[in-house]
Write a structure and sequence with these properties.
Blueprint: H1 2-9, H2 17-27
Length: 41
């Protein structure tokens, strides 16, 4: 599965980190959709 996604994205995974952080922050830490990550604190 990862190889398929990587082929579509065409980037190294590390290159996507800034976009991942931006998307997560757009939702906001207090957004209920982010509750799933509370166990990782």
């Amino acid at each position: 599965m990862f190889a398929r996604v990587q082929a579509l994205v065409g980037e190294e995974l590390e290159d996507t980190y800034p976009s991942q952080v931006e998307a997560a922050m757009r939702a906001g830490r207090e957004d209920p959709v982010m509750d799933e990550y509370n166990g990782y604190d």
